[in-house]
Amino acid sequence: MPTSPTTTVPCLSCGTPVRWAVTAAGRRQAVNPDPDPSGNLGVYTDGTGRLRVRVLTTERPTLEHAEWQAMPHAATCAHPQPRRTAPRRTDRERTGTRPAPWRGWTR
User: Which residues contact 72 (CB under 8 A, 6 or more apart)?
Assistant: First the structure.
């Protein structure tokens, strides 16, 4: 169930309130709930009532329409959780040969 753009939830690491927004790629991003002039995000509510976020880049450095400037919560979290990355598989035994590239018929 989608939440309201004004709904804040506590951060699981530090407990401070955050708002969840959606990026252009469809990923969720935690944003501090109060406007912050030093932030690098432009946050706005789209036509469906979902909180959307975009990064203020050199191509689009200013706020547009109903956007407000915010700080990503990951930058200000007091107790950030470590990033989840896939472990490297260095212990894997390598077998077989790598096929040679196909060169086609030459005469």
Answer: 29, 30, 31, 32, 39, 40, 41
